[in-house]
Structures are given as structure tokens and as C-alpha cells.
Amino acid sequence: MTTTDSWRGVAAEQQDDLPQAATLFLRDRSRRLLGSLLRPYRPAVAALLALVVLENLARLATPVLVKVGIDSGIPPVVHGRGATVLITVAAGALGAVVIQAACHRTFLLLSGRIGQDVLLELRRRLFEQFMHLSVSFHERYTSGRMISRLTSDVEAIDTLLATGVEDLISALLLVVGTGVLLLVLDWQLGLVTLASFPLLIRLAAWFRRQSALAYRRTREAVALLIVQFVESMRGIRAVQGFRREERNQAIFETINDRYRLANRRSFRLNAVFGPGVLLIGNVVIGVVLLYGGYRVLSGAMTIGVLAAFLLYLGQFFEPMQDITDFYNTFQAASAALEKLSGVLEEAPEVAPPAEPRRPAASLGELEFDGVRFGYRAAPVLDGLDLVVPAGQTLAVVGATGAGKTTLARLAARFYDPTLGRIRLDGVDLRDYAEADLRRAVVMVTQEGYCFAGTIADNIGFGRPTADRSAVLQAARAVGADRFVDRLPLGYDTDVGKHGGRLSAGQRQLLAFARAFLADPRVLILDEATAALDVPSERLVQRALGTVLAGRTALIIAHRLTTVEIADRVIVLDRGRIVEDGSPRDLLGGSGRYAALHQAWLASLA
To answer: What distances in angstroms separate CA 114 from CA 33, 46, 145, 153, 174, one per listed residue?
Structure first.
């Protein structure tokens, strides 16, 4: 792994102690993301820039018109045309105001549309990326952090696009344009004004350094706050069951207080920078008023020039606060972009093949060839060799930690082996297109997860194109129709949040119906009957003959009643096969399977 690769997964909240090269890499990654999002809108962005320039040129014209009105329109006795000049100046000022308003309105409409389109694309990319990242990513990346990416981080970018960019461009144009006009109006007073620049630059540099740290800590704190809240609410049964309310409350309050302190630090920085800029600006205005008044009295300057100068000074220092506000917005958006770009550039550990292959025949033969795999340093499977002929039902048993679930996850290609190959019909799983593999291999776990919607929706999840009759047939095949028909709304019954309106056994039956409807070549049952009570398990036992008919099956089981329907049993111990044979043959011996069966019978007594 290169040094650059090691920085890819670094979250923005961890960057305070990173080397300079890493920080530059992360900033470059953020720019690439923002550039890719804005690339389709380059003509529209150019139009936005033109609107901002035109709006601020109109704004800069107003003090000049005031100067002309005072110097050329006020003393009519000199020229005899003061009224005409004043009317012309007033009309010009009105035109400038109308141009400002029209440009600003058009900018808001166009920027709002572009901003929402960009956010739409960003959310789409994030969701797609989360859907395709490997299981290992989701096991280490909590749901709270994912919610934080999709909510608070996207909102920070929304704020930047909605108001921050216009404020920055306007502020820069006003500062530069006003500075030039001040020197043109009166270079001596202009130099007096520009003498305040060193103080402003030092103040801004200090604020930039401090606010960068403060806002990064704020983003870190709000992300932790969301994570703690989501995890506590998702596990509310466990929290209340183990009386963890007070402890979780204490943790939440600690994080909440950390968030408060981070925000307080930001407010303190603003309380120094904003008033500091205002103080410097007022001092300069006072000096200009004194010196300019002296020059007017001495005849070296007209009143109109002094009035225009003072108006420009207001425009010169006012944008400094806008730049401050933008920098605050920019810091939040920058930290969010760093996190989002890190997620979007996260490479799946289970990568799709460059050139997908399809097997010549669609049979379902599964082969493990010298497979080695471990989640961390210690291997779980160590050189496993196994062939499961097409159509065979293989039961995998063993003590906890023997590697049964790992075997199932590898067969479903949730992970790739460290060494060795896993083949389906002679083709390495790594060479299958993802869609083809997911159609060929389906895994049913003990959770029996239900999605929001009706019972029919959850069964149809396995094959979205299936019609109602196919859904009903799948339910009948596994025996789920017996409880569904007793429900008031039948298959249109809403299952509730996570299937909360159904029992664990009913949810598992729906998972079986979903798998049956998907009609895979290989069906993997990972402790899939563990959540069933005895009556439900008997229903499933009868249905499994229909579900497994004509396809290869791996059954991972502790409850040995499920094993009885298998054609073959292997016993795993520390990632190695220690017994292999039919259930009857192994049960008649004195090996591990017989001992497991005796222990299971004793647990029922």
C-alpha cells in the first residue's frame, strides 16, 4: 500500500495531526469532487459570475453618481443646469439599483437551481456508493456516520452553494474595485485607507488558522452526536433491557457538551474578528473624515469627492465581514467535502472484474480450492478444499468460531479469500459480474430482515419484476401463507419498522419466500432457522424440500434438526474439515458430528 492509499480513508476530523502532504492530498481530493459535480454546469456558472460582476459594477457606480450630483448639480448658480444634472444622476442611480435587483434575483434563481441539482447528484452518488461498498466497509462504518454524511455534511455544502459563493465573489469584487476607485478619486486618501491593510491581513490570517481548527472540531463533534443518537435509538431494546439509559445519557451529554464547546470556540473567534474589522474600519473612516475635511477646507478636494470616498469606505470594510462569514461556511463545507470525497473514493474490497465471465453451463457446482481467509491477523479458514456438486445440499456444522459463517460469506462473495479460489461452475467468483453473481447465489441469514412496506413487497424484494401470483406461490412454497391469510389485510399488511409487527419466525418465513422467489442456483442458509420456534421450524423443515429442490445449498446450522435434510455434512474445526459424510453415516460413528448430536439431544432434555 502506498502512502497516498493510506490517506484515502482518513476522515476530516482526524486531519489535525496529519503531515502537510496528506493535507494537500485531501484538499486535492475535495477539489476533484467539487469539480466533477460542477463540470456539467460550467456555462451556467460562467453566467452566474457575469451576473455577480454586473451587480457589483452597478453597486460601485452609486458613489460616483453621488459625487457628480454634489459637485455638478448642487451649485446651480455656477452652471445654470443643476436641476438637469440632479435628475440625470437620480435616474442613473435608479437604473443602477434596478440592475442590482434584477441581477441578484436572476442569480438567486439560477444558483438555487444549480445548487439543488448538484446536491441531488451528490446524494445519488453517496447512496450508490454505500450500496456497492463491501460488507467489510459497513461493518466498520457505523450507520450514524453514514447518516451524518447524507445529512449534516450535505447541508454544509448546500449552505456554501446557496449563499457563500455569492458573498465571497461580491466581497472580493467590492474590495478590489473599491480600492482602485479610492486611489482614482484621491490617491492620498487612498493610501491612508490602504495603510490599514497590514492589520487586516494579520487579523485575517490569524482567524483563518484558528477557525480551520475550530470548524473541523465542530464537524467532528456533530458527527459523533449523530452516531451516538442513532446507535442508541437503533438498539433501544438492548439499552432498556440492560438499563443502560443513564450511561447512554451520560455519553450523549459528554458529546453534546463537546459540540457546545466547539461552537463556543467558533463564536469567540467571530467575536474577535468581526469587531476587529469594524474597529479598524471606523478608525480609518475617522482619519479620512478629518484629513479629507481639512483638504476640502483648503480647496484641495471637492465635497463630492469626500462624500463619494466615505461611501466607498463603507463598501470597502463591509465585505470584510462577508468574507468572514464565507470563511466560516467554507470551513464547514471543506470539512464535509473531505469526508464525502473520502467515502466516494473508497474502493470496494470486493472489486468487480475488469472483464466479467459467464460459465458455459448454469448448474451450481461450488468449489473451494486452497481457500485461506482471516478477518485480522489470525486465519479463520486455512487452506480449505471443498467441492459441492451441483444440486447437493451440504450442511456445515461445528463449534462456535469454527469458520461456518465465514465459509458462507465467502461463498456469497461478501469477502474475497486471502489465498486460493472459490469457483461456481468452474468460474472464479471474482470473475462474475456482480449482477450475475447476486442472481446465482442468495444468502438467507438468521436476522430475517424486513424492509418498510407490505408483506408482498418484502417477498417481491427477491425479484422486483415478479407479479402477484409469483409472490403468492413463493409464500405457499415455504408455508408463509398460513399466517399471512389470517392477517386482516393479508399480503397488503404493513410489516412495520424492521418487521416489528411480525414475530421472529414470521419474518424468517418471509425471508425464505423471498429467496425462493429469487430462484438462485446456490442457496446459502446461515443459521436461517435459529430464530424460529418449534412449530415454525417444522413448517420450514417441510418447505425446505421444495425450496432446495434442484439447486445447490449450503446450510450453516447449530440446530441439528435442519441438518437431517442434508445430503452431506462436513464438520469444521478451526477452519479445517475434520469430518465429511452423510448425516446417517456420521451419526452412526463416534466422531465430532456424533458428539455434537448427543450434546444437542442433551440440551433438549
So the answer is: 16, 12, 27, 18, 24
Counting Cα atoms < 13 Å in the Cβ hemisphere of 514 gives 27
CA 160/CA 156 separation, integer angstroms: 6
Indicate whether 356 belongs to any domain.
no
When pLDDT is cut at 50, 70 and 90, the band that residue 24 belongs to is: low
Residue 28's CB: how many other CB atoms inside 10 A? 11
Judged by DSSP in three states, 80 sits in: coil
23 belongs to a structural domain: yes
Element (H, E) at 152: none
Instruction: Provide the grid cell at 278.
Output: 469594524
Gyration radius (Cα) of the chain, Å: 35
218/266 Cα distance (integer angstroms): 8
Residue 301 — left, alpha, or beta (φ > 0 → left; ψ -120 to 50 → alpha)?
beta
Provide the domain limits for residue 485: 366-604
Does any domain span residue 350? no
Of the three residues 285, 311, 344, the one that is the final residue of a domain is 344
Do 373 and 321 belong to one domain?
no
Q: What is the CATH number of the domain that holds 428?
A: 3.40.50.300
In a domain, 349, yes or no: no
- Give the contacts of 279 (CB within 8 A, at least 6 positions apart): none
The tens digit of pLDDT for each residue in 248-275 reads 888 889 989 988 888 888 888 878 887 8
